[in-house]
């Protein structure tokens, strides 16, 4: 892929139906699921594969970043990312049939290298990429079986030596006190523990003798050093088998950082195919939101007959508290002015379509709003003449009969922000800090530190993360109560206003109706 | 270091305000400051190399002005500049990819530090919540004991755990000490790894002061265990008898609140309100007594006692000084402008450092001899430093040969 593109072949050939010749299913190229990505890819792939694979990986990495920004612990991040990972970038265990394994590993391999090209270009991008890739690496390592973990560890070259019998004996007490808690939690996952519900010191001590210990210069395991989880002696850290992940992850991130710097230096000479440049530029902007699958949002094929009849022109106002902030502001705007400018109309009407307001009710709603009594209100005739068509158009009832989707956050953010008397856009991007802060307080965010965190996310340009965080903070109690009852809660980041609404409704359904907003 | 002379003048008080004059500084810089030793110490070789020539020095002037990014080609230039500029002190920073004084000629990205000694800064002002004898900039032999303990604990960890060998302790001139570690492997560490070392040492978690409990995980890590062995026997003498902090109104409440059981904690507060002036010893016993009486089961009192020992006496480290590579620290042999004391290096393995007898003061030095350091009490510290530096340079040359061989092998 990074081979210099030979223009002279006029190589813009489209691939034939059998794209890969010679290398098909050659699993020997990818002997293991997990990899340090030492070998660059060499085969040709289609431009479409190039783009979709990269985007799929980017979605995973962005989700990881979002979890990290929201202060999720590693375990939480792992459980949030895993479902997305198995959809977009699965790496199945070796028991599966090998042709799909090859494809999976190839996609993982190529997408990693494509993103290296996109993310090597600045210090900031490199750091972000390394951080997210390292987290991904750790998540995947933990999904490996014990045997696979051992094989993987043996395959990488690290300056560690096994601690000799004599030394083990000499430092037995120290090794025990450093590994006590780790061994304890390992034992708590055994079948034996399920029965007895306790772990004795003897068990822990006995287990210690079955564990291999390695020693290596302390610089290789800064995480274990800073948390005092490793015994240190004369510059060496003594690391138990069960702590290897920390070590490997540090090694992985150092290696990747070096590689990115090398890639950046090589970039000017790579002579990229000019079809790739825009793709890479777009990727490194990092602005790919995860597609939100609206579950057959309300009105389907135009007439709205299969729509959710729960929401209608009369009661839609009661659901405002479940709307994300951007839509709440639009609702306020329309109610105050009895009008909305074009962008606002589009953003709100498609959102309302998404929450299940059918075409007929939507027209009623907009007509009521626009023609209501008040200053600047219009006549029904004017409404019918100037607006009816465009609202019906949004529902695919006019013109090209296109089934328009509600805007996702990416669409909203890609459009120009509101000017005076406009209400569309993303409040985390568009509102002044003070106004945003007031708005958030009105939503019930009273804790100053939390509020500050949201404001800071907004200022850093992480608008979706800010919005997701607001959702979590406002609904903290409801989410906790769901989790306590064992009800699943989707904690991935919000990338679509309708997702915000759906999650609110989901929580409504799964918690006691005691919510006091 | 003391020259062991019994005819030495009587104990002088370090806290006595003695502000050295400009003439004092001029004479000291002209005749006493061991430029060559400092050059060797930072250069790790006889001939000037990047370790020195790309090294940042910062000058602080009498006016309060602070001038960063000075750099020098050799010991002579270093000396001439200091003598001419007459700073009240100078600080040592990191080694950069280019000479720091040329920084304006390159892009900002080039000015990232490459190497630096690993440094630690321990200061008595950070002990003000347990000290009762002094506060702020004042020190006395009683509270200096905290520093002596800190040196013991940190020195042991640096040598035994991290395996560092090239380390030198330096009196900071008034109320604390610095430690400079020059082992090659630590000089090249990046900030995350420096952070790892200092966090390993910083078991009180000084950075996050809002956390009330230090929550030492059991079983204790060997470093925690060893530190406890060092601190345990001193607790009664230093805290209970000498400092006696809980005799004071505002502090006994902290003691009561540090008990992790609400019932016991409020019982103690009530009890002590009736007799607030009772000694720390008696209050320490009260915790035991009431713990038994109320049959408290929610926590183990022995654990709590151990934690109190750590909380009151464990070294308090300045994490940022150690972590940041761009951070500068006052050079050994500078004069503390507020006290006139020389920031002398010392070797705690030879003798515990006593700031009241071992740190010569400018006025004392000039009384001994106006121009020849060999005739003053600066002789011992300079010789100690020279021996240390010579060893450092010799070992460095040997190590460098090995490093280069390994490198050559890798590069065919």
3D architecture notes:
Chain A: DNA primase is the polymerase that synthesizes small RNA primers for the Okazaki fragments made during discontinuous DNA replication. Chain A: This is DNA primase large subunit. Chain A: It holds the Pfam family DNA_primase_lrg. The complex is a heterodimer of chains A (517) and B (412). Chain A is mostly helical and 517 residues long. Chain A has three domains: 15-154 and 252-284, Up-down Bundle (Transcription Elongation Factor S-II, Chain A); 155-244, no CATH class; 316-425 and 475-510, no CATH class. Chain A is built from 24 helices and four strands. In chain A, helix 1 crosses helix 3 (98-119). In chain A, 34% of the residues are buried. The relative contact order of chain B is 0.17. In chain B, helix 2 (35-43) crosses helix 4 and helix 10 crosses helix 11 (280-293). Chain B is globular, with a radius of gyration of 24 Å. Chain B has helices at 22-31, 35-43, 50-53, 75-85, 141-161, 184-187, 191-201, 222-243, 249-257, 262-274, 280-293, 301-313, 319-323, 362-368, 379-410; strands at residues 55-60, 66-70, 89-95, 118-123, 167-171, 176-181, 329-330, 345-346. The longest helix of chain B is centred in the last third of the chain and has 32 residues, at 379-410. Chain B has two domains: 1-140 and 165-203 and 317-412, DNA primase, PRIM domain (Alpha-Beta Complex); 222-313. Chain B has 15 helices and eight strands. The interface between A and B is medium-sized, with 23 and 25 residues.
């Amino acid at each position: 892929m990074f081979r210099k593109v030979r223009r002279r072949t006029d190589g813009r050939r489209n691939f034939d139906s059998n794209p890969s010749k010679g290398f098909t299913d050659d699993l020997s190229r990818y002997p293991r699921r997990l990899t340090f990505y030492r070998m660059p890819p060499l085969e040709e792939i289609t431009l479409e594969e190039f783009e979709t694979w990269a985007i799929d990986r980017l979605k995973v990495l962005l989700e990881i970043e979002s979890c990290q920004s929201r202060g999720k612990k590693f375990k939480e991040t792992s459980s949030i990312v895993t479902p997305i990972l198995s959809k977009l970038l699965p790496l199945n265990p070796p028991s599966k049939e090998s042709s799909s394994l090859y494809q999976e590993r190839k996609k993982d391999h190529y997408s990693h290298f494509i993103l290296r090209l996109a993310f090597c270009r600045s210090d900031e991008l490199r750091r972000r990429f390394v951080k997210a890739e390292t987290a991904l690496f750790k998540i995947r390592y933990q999904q490996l079986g014990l045997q696979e973990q051992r094989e993987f560890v043996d395959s990488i070259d690290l300056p560690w030596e096994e601690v000799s019998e004599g030394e083990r004996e000499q430092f037995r007490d120290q090794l025990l006190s450093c590994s006590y808690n780790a061994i304890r939690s390992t034992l708590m996952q055994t079948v034996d523990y399920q029965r007895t519900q306790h772990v004795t010191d003897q068990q822990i001590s006995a287990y210690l003798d079955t564990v291999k210990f390695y020693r290596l210069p302390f610089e290789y395991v800064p995480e274990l050093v800073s948390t005092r989880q490793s015994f240190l002696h004369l510059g060496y850290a003594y690391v138990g088998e069960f702590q290897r992940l920390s070590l490997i992850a540090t090694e992985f991130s150092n290696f990747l950082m070096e590689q990115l710097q090398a890639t950046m230096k090589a970039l000017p000479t790579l002579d990229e195919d000019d079809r790739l440049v825009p793709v890479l530029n777009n990727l490194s902007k990092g602005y790919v939101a995860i597609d939100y699958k609206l579950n057959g949002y309300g009105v389907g094929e135009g007439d709205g007959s299969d729509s959710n009849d729960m929401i209608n022109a009369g009661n839609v106002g009661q659901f405002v508290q479940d709307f994300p902030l951007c839509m709440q502001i639009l609702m306020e705007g329309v109610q105050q002015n009895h009008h909305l400018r074009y962008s606002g109309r589009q953003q709100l009407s498609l959102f309302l379509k998404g929450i299940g307001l059918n075409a007929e009710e939507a027209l009623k709603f907009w007509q009521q709003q626009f023609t209501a009594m008040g200053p600047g209100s219009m006549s029904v005739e004017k409404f019918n003449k100037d607006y009816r068509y465009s609202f019906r158009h949004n529902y695919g009832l006019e013109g090209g009969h296109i089934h328009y989707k509600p805007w996702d956050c990416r669409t909203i953010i890609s459009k120009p922000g509101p000017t005076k008397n406009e209400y569309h856009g993303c409040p985390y991007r568009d509102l002044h800090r003070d106004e945003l802060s007031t708005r958030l307080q009105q939503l019930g965010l009273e804790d100053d530190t939390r509020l500050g965190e949201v404001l800071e996310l907004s200022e850093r340009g992480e608008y979706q993360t800010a919005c997701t965080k607001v959702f979590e903070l406002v609904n903290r109690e409801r989410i906790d109560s769901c989790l306590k009852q064992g009800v699943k809660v989707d904690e991935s980041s919000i990338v679509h206003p309708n997702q915000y609404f759906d999650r609110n409704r989901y929580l409504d359904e799964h918690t006691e109706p005691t919510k006091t907003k | 270091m003391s020259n062991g002379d019994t005819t030495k003048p009587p104990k002088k008080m370090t806290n006595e305000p003695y502000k050295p004059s400009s003439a004092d500084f001029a004479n000291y810089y002209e005749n006493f400051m061991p430029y060559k030793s400092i050059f060797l110490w930072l250069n790790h070789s006889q001939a000037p190399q990047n370790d020195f020539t790309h090294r940042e020095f910062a000058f602080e002037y009498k006016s309060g002005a602070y001038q960063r990014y000075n750099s020098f080609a050799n010991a002579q230039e270093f000396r001439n500049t200091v003598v001419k500029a007459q700073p009240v002190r100078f600080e040592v920073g990191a080694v950069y990819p280019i000479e720091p004084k040329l920084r304006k000629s390159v892009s900002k990205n080039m000015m990232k530090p490459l190497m630096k000694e690993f440094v630690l800064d321990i200061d008595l002002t950070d002990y003000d919540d347990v000290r009762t004898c002094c506060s702020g900039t004042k020190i006395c032999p009683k509270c200096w004991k905290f520093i002596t303990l800190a040196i013991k604990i940190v020195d042991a960890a640096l040598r035994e755990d991290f395996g560092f060998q090239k380390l030198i302790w330096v009196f900071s001139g008034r109320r604390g000490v610095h430690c400079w570690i020059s082992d090659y492997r630590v000089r090249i560490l990046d900030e995350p790894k420096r952070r790892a070392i200092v966090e390993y040492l910083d078991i009180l978690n000084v950075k996050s002061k809002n956390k009330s409990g230090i929550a030492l995980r059991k079983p204790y890590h060997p470093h925690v265990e060893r530190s406890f062995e060092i601190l345990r026997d001193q607790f009664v003498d230093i805290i209970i008898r000498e400092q006696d902090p809980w005799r004071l109104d505002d502090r006994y409440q902290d003691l009561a609140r540090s008990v992790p059981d609400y019932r016991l904690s409020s019982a103690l507060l009530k009890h002590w309100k009736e007799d607030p002036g009772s000694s720390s010893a008696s209050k320490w016993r009260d915790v035991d007594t009431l713990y038994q009486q109320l049959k408290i089961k929610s926590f183990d009192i022995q654990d709590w006692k151990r934690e109190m020992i750590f909380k009151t006496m464990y070294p308090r480290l300045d994490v940022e000084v150690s972590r940041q590579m761009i951070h500068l620290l006052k050079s050994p042999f500078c004069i503390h402008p507020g006290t006139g004391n020389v920031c002398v290096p010392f070797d705690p393995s030879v003798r515990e450092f006593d700031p009241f007898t071992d740190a010569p003061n400018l006025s004392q030095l000039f009384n001994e001899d106006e121009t020849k350091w060999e005739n003053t009490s600066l002789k011992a510290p300079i010789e100690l430093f020279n021996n240390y530096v010579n060893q450092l340079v010799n070992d460095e040359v040997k190590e460098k040969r090995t490093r280069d061989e390994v490198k050559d092998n890798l590069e065919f």
